[in-house]
Predict the 3D structure of the following.
Amino acid sequence: MYPSDLRYTKEHEWVRLQGNIATIGITDYAQQELGDVVFVELPKVGAKLIAGKTFGTVESVKAVSEIYSPVSGEVTEVNSTLTDTPETINKDPHGQAWLIKLKVDDPAAVAALMDAAAYQAFISEQKGAAH
């Protein structure tokens, strides 16, 4: 369910690193928790992001949720198709619904994030704690 080529955060973001460019999105778990996504607010190209700080929001019919940068770097691209079709996040969270691309300051920081197995264990704990 969670692609093994991605890294994951406890805030339910994913990262795909190719060279020093990180593609960032929210996980399938996050989109399920949010419900139907109706609006996405993303930073502008050139924005400098700091790991652990918010860089945008995802709004659903249930709630507004902040998105946190998994790593530090400079935004090189923004998925502008989400402005018109935010529901793509519900349909393809690990693919077409990527949020931003970031030129990372330290590519090694991505390796420090959870792999797919660790993330699946983490969300199992979250689900267990919620019930």
About this structure: The longest strand covers residues 54-60. The first helix runs from residue 28 to 34.
